[in-house]
Amino acid sequence: MKLGIIGFARSGKTTVFNSLTGAHAEVGAFGSRDANLAVLKVPDERIDHLTALYKPKKVAYAEFQFVDVAPDEASAEEKALSSAALTALRQVEALVHVVRAFDNGNVMHPLGGVDPVRDCRALEEEMQLEDLIIIERRMERLEKEHRKDHEYEVLGRCKAHIEKDEPLRLLELNPQEEKVVSGFCFLSRKPLMLLGNYGDERIGQDDPSGLRAYAEQTDQTLIELCGAMEMEVCQLPEDERAAFREELGLGEESRTRFIKTAYAMLGLISFLTTGETEVHAWTAPKGTRAQDAAGIIHSDLARGFIRAEVVHYDDFVAAGSMAKAKEAGHVRLEGKDYIVQDGDIILIRFNV
Q1: Spatial distance between the Cα atoms of 350 and 324, rounded to a whole number of angstroms
Q2: Is the pTM of this model over 0.85?
Q3: N or C: which end of the chain has fewer CB within 10 A?
Q4: Alpha helices, DSSP H only, in 42-94?
């Protein structure tokens, strides 16, 4: 799962990037630098237990890949998305909007004073405008080619929706319509999480910025953290972090809270494969069929799918081993339409 970090200049995007991933990207860098890329491995006690049991040659946790693109402050002083950001962000699967909710007189906001609700609305408008430009250009081309077909009709619906000041993620499309728009990689169609970046003086306090109320009113997912403090903690030795967090009243680790929130918002699960060669956690959307889950592992497994041997992790642990789980009747043979559950341990039988 690839996530794009977006937001206005000096909102703390790279600070948040560092705090979530443990990276050491330069904070406050603008201009033409390359995008910051980092991977966050999803902690999973199930993988830890299976690794201790099987002692495999390879262990693979589920992952989030983050893309942090710096704005071109010289030419986009009042915009959140530079041309470089637009190109990179169309390739991500979801967006994290870092919203500035901290005051710092030495770090001026490009739009003036700190106003999280204004920033949320402004960035939504910016993404919708970029999508609208793409839609209108494509519709004009279809008109010139005298092709007012199904694609034209679907894009017309998208255009009308944006003109009502609504992001495309709120537009209901059937599977055929979704297939039409998927290739355009519309920004306002991507799932969006709000991440409030607060100052350390707000730790454990009420939220006077209005961001929390805005998220509730618009039914958007919001996670709150103090990016600067979290980055400092993340750079400490691992065995010192818990005590430091407790002393500061930071609560649960930011990356843990983020992962839980992201999984819930995006509707994701993890299923597992095990053995002496590899223990692996795979990420899939809720409702994924067994054959599609096989395709996440490798396309050949989906193409030659015969059946899946499935045991839930809890049943496996209760039994103590795969052999005992089979004796207890916990290992099931499932067909291609079986809906994979979070924590399923799966062995794909296939023939290509």
Answers
A1: 24
A2: yes
A3: C
A4: 45-54, 83-89
